Amino acid sequence: MCGIIGILAHPDSQVAQSLYDGLLVLQHRGQDAAGIVTSDRENISHRRANGLVRDVFRSKHSESLRGSMGLGHVRYPTAGSSSVAEAQPFYTNTPFGVSLAHNGNLNNTSDIISGLLEYDHRRINTSSDSEALLNLFAAEIQRSLNGRPGGLDSLSNEDIFRAVERLHLRAEGSYSVVAMITGWGIVAFRDPNGIRPLSMGSRVVEGFTERLFSSESVVCDTLGFKHDGDVPPGEAIVARMDGTMSSKQCSSDVLHSPCIFEHVYFARPDSVIDGISVHSSRIRMGAALARRITEEFPDHGIESVVAVPDSGRIAALELARVLGIPYREGFVKNRYIGRTFIMPGQTVRKDSVRKKLNTIEEEFSGKVVLIVDDSIVRGNTSRRIVTMAREAGAKKVYFASCSPPIVHPNVYGIDMPAKSEYVAYGRTIEQISEAIGSDWMIYQKLEDLVHACKGDSKSDLATFDCSCFDGVYVTGGINDEYLERIERMRSDSAKETVSI
Prior knowledge:
Helix content is 33%, strand content 23%. It has 2 domains: 3-254, 4-Layer Sandwich (Glutamine Phosphoribosylpyrophosphate, subunit 1, domain 1), CATH 3.60.20; 272-460, Rossmann fold, CATH 3.40.50.2020. The protein has 17 helices and 22 strands. It is elongated, with a radius of gyration of 23 Å. Mean pLDDT is 91; it is low at 341-345. It is an alpha+beta fold.
């Protein structure tokens, strides 16, 4: 999971500060590395490094990042690598100078890399699927030109649309992309399933319509752009430096299936994804859980509902309201500790859980407490939280997950561990409850989660990608061999070996 942003601004403006501000808003989507590339009509400037946005960029970098359009990226590694060489945006010289930032995960990277070398005579420098995607896009632009003479002025919107059409035929997996052609314009496109989000916005400055593309709509709000919706799945949008914009559907095989985990955990609650409010989705998750508790455990005796901050709070508030039980803030979060789930390596993750939360003892002492979290992956955080509640004097500790049991790998850009490391894998609900130390627990039903996230949406949404819950993968190429390979790559032992 990563965060991407692309801005085409007024020709006389400098875009670096807006890109920086946008990346700060997307910091929750990746804390491993950050990068910005900018362009004027002739040159590019870039800065990429490991670390948080605020640490990677200083005022001297802002002054050197010149130009009225650019891209930004915050990285979260899905295979354990934290090499600065894999920080984005990536850049290639030919044709014309193409930069690219990518959120998602390609499932046929090795095939793409082999094809690039054999057919396009391009060799990439890393094992990153994003660099492979950049070179694939650049190769297809070159093919669209078909030896046509002329400089940058000869490149047309139709050349770009043909390139994206052929890219869709060669790439499998999830990809939301913002790309920049030096001195020419910005290109934004999503895979035909629209698995990863990509919003767009606009504003008029001195008669010029500026364009914004970003992983979440909240960036539009923060930077003062009007949110114009989302880039449709399979579609490409071209925003030129002369202020013109055009779009085209570049795939004949569209099945809109966005990742449901965006609503469960990743996206900010003040974002709207594919026309659906993340905040409203989480409210409905809480209401659905409350109804199930009433049906399955009517004599629960719960005296207070406590959320695991922050992503469990909205659902917990609604759950408490529907049950008619007081909601209490029982945990205090240290906001200077990063998001536990997206930290590389299990040793670092366990250590951060101990430092991340502290209890307010009077909210637990002598009480029957229901703790609500967005999800349970490995169970380490949940187990530690239950232990903390008991140490604070809770009489009984119940646990509720806003999502169903996670039992399958996510192959579309979320670093779910090897399935053997899921606490729910091969266990009954009673065994999971015992593993995390709770007196009783409940999971959301998948159909309730889907209904909560759809709401009354009137978008063209076909379904959601729920693969980590149901094992149904919406793209091709996902077989047992592939799943076994990524399990070897994503196991905590493999990540610890990489970090050493």
